[in-house]
Amino acid sequence: MAIRHLKMALEWKGDVLGVLETRRHYGTYFKGIANFKETKSRILTENDPATILQELDRVKKSFFEKELA
Q: How far apart are CA 1 and CA 59, in angstroms?
């Protein structure tokens, strides 16, 4: 959901506002994930949308796909 949200925001508002305005939602998306502080910090301080999307994809693979297996 976070990836979709960021992509939609980037299309609608552009890179700068899209990144800035989606930051406030990440706390809700990732609430309760153990050992997530460092990853969350990287996502919240990054300004490049491509890097954020890569990090979110890594989060999806490392935190969520393990739970589904």
A: 12
Q: Is 45 helix (H, G, I), strand (E, B) or coil?
A: helix
Kindly provide the residue ranges of all beta strands, DSSP E only, lying in the chain, ordered along the sequence.
none
Q: What is the pTM of this model?
A: 0.83
Q: Which of 61, 63, 60, 48 lies closest to 4 in space, CA to CA?
A: 60
Domains of the chain (ranges, CATH numbers): 2-68 (1.10.1200)
Positive or negative torsion for Cα 16, 19, 25, 27:
negative
Query: What's at 51, amino acid-wise?
Result: T
pLDDT (tens digit per residue) in 24-36: 998 888 888 888 8
